[in-house]
Amino acid sequence: MKQIFLLRHAKSDWDNLNQQDFDRPLAKRGIKDANLMSQHIKEKHYLIDKVLCSSAERTKQTFDICSDGFNFPINNAIYSEDLYFGKCDAIINYIRNLDEDLSSILIIGHNPTMHLLLESLSDESIKKFPTCSLAEINIENTWKDLSLKKCKLKSFIKPKELKS
User: Fold this and answer.
1) Which of 146, 136, 135, 137 lies closest to 95, judged by CA?
2) Which one is the CATH code of 2-13+21-161: 3.40.50.1240, 1.20.210.10, 3.90.79.10, 1.10.10.10?
3) What is the pLDDT of residue 164?
4) Do residues 115 and 6 touch, judged by C-beta distance below 8 A?
């Protein structure tokens, strides 16, 4: 079995309206939510083999906080500006080309891409993919045979569901 984890960046700070969106950091609530999610991840003992993260500031900060929960070295993550623009087809093709020795991948990105990916892969319909939410999707076959609408959404955790 293969696993895809989708993590939307935590709440961003909108205090500086002149700041470029790409450079927007996390808000205080975003840092709090990311710490809660990191603790949840640690308690679940999730393991990941590869990380693909948007190179936007708020996604990098979200992963910096959550990487401890995943016990994944920050320096081993792959940062891509392509995730900022969020083309689902490109991400799905990337997943299909993963090395079969890998069991799991974490993708940290933005909406609407995270929402669309979850629904495209699992055929589940969700109302909203809130900031700092984490989806765990299971795949029964190989990466190269990844089929849309055929994956199983195992869990979908929102920060507000976690104890503070």
Assistant:
1) 146
2) 3.40.50.1240
3) 60
4) no
